């Protein structure tokens, strides 16, 4: 009984210490607020925990502070650029980006952030985090850490949270709505430090949970790799198809004009299939 009581007290003490540390950190950092009565492009500002302004500076967008004491902000105005301020609301990384993530966001380490530039107007105003356009990883000094890629997509798959999909090209077009193809570049991936762990050599790359990795196409043939680039299925197949969790029939192939009507209902029910010479060569049960 004494041992159990001691264990409970120890856990409570650890939790209280953790909460106190978190509270102290939050208390020292300003909070981003939006003036709901301001319809102009300078509605955001920072306050202390009591709601008192800590600076007269205003922004078109201001985010909460990351644990490292930096916050992404967008300067006032319709064409405002993004930069970063410190806890005294001084600009420490200049306004120069069309998009800037929070430090530690998208699975990157706490001292790294994703930035994008030269985005077109539509992408800059709508969903810049997944927009095509030059992108790179920077550190807390604004120094470039990774290569500059033609695009950078966060990977939302939980087990691959620290892997970000990248492309080496600059021109893209949509094909069947699955993933945009690049006409002058190839797909790969970087890790949480911005290091390229899957070289940009694939014409197509998409996450699939049944594999704990990616479906890929290399030199016109289909296969699969894991989240670190290790081969799971050799790139020697003519096509791939599967039914996803939303009962969408997805096909990836250049064979037979994409005509898959001859496959039975059993073939496509929650399975991932690799095709060779118009036959199912590999059949994997799809994960839930």
Elements, N to C (H/E): HEEEEEEEEHEEEEEEEEEEEEEHEE
Strand content: 35-45%
State the strand order across the main sheet.
Answer: 3-4-5-6
The number of distinct helices, counting runs of at least 4 residues, comes to 3
Largest sheet: 4 strands, antiparallel
Radius of gyration: 24 Å
Uncertain parts: 2-25, 255-261
Q: What is the average per-residue confidence, as pLDDT, rounded to a whole number?
A: 80
> Oligomeric form of this entry?
single chain
Helix/strand/pairing category: mainly beta
The residue fraction in helices comes out at: 10-25%
Characterize the overall form: elongated
Number of strands: 23
| Alpha-carbon distance between the two ends | 43 Å
Q: Any overview of this molecule?
A:
- With 288 residues, the protein is mainly beta.
- Helix content is 12%, strand content 36%.
- The longest helix is centred in the first third of the chain and has 27 residues, at 2-28.
- Mean pLDDT is 80; it is low at 2-25 and 255-261.
């Amino acid at each position: 009984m004494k041992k159990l009581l001691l264990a409970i007290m120890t856990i409570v003490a650890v939790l209280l210490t953790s909460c106190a540390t978190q509270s102290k950190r939050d208390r020292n950092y300003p909070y981003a607020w939006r003036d709901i009565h301001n319809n102009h492009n300078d509605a955001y500002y920072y306050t202390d925990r009591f709601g008192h302004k800590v600076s007269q500076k205003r922004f078109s967008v201001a985010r909460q502070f990351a644990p490292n004491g930096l916050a992404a902000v967008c300067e006032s105005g319709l064409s405002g650029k993004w930069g970063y301020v410190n806890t005294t609301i001084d600009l420490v990384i200049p306004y120069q980006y069309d998009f800037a993530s929070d430090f530690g966001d998208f699975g990157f380490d706490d001292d790294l952030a994703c930035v994008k530039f030269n985005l077109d107007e539509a992408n800059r105003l709508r969903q810049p985090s997944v927009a095509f356009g030059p992108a790179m990883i920077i550190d807390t000094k604004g120094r470039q850490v990774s290569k500059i890629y033609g695009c950078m997509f966060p990977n939302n798959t939980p087990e691959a949270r620290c892997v970000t999909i990248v492309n080496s090209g600059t021109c893209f077009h949509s094909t069947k709505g699955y993933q945009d193809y690049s006409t002058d570049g190839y797909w790969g991936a970087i890790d949480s430090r911005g290091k390229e762990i899957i070289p940009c050599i694939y014409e197509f790359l998409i996450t699939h949970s049944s594999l704990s990795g990616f479906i890929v196409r290399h030199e016109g043939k289909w296969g699969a790799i894991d989240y670190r680039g290790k081969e799971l299925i050799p790139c020697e197949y003519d096509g791939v198809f599967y039914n996803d969790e939303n009962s969408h029939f997805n096909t990836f192939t250049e064979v037979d004009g994409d005509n898959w009507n001859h496959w039975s209902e059993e073939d496509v029910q929650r399975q991932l299939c690799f095709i060779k010479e118009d036959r199912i060569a590999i059949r994997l049960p799809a994960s839930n």
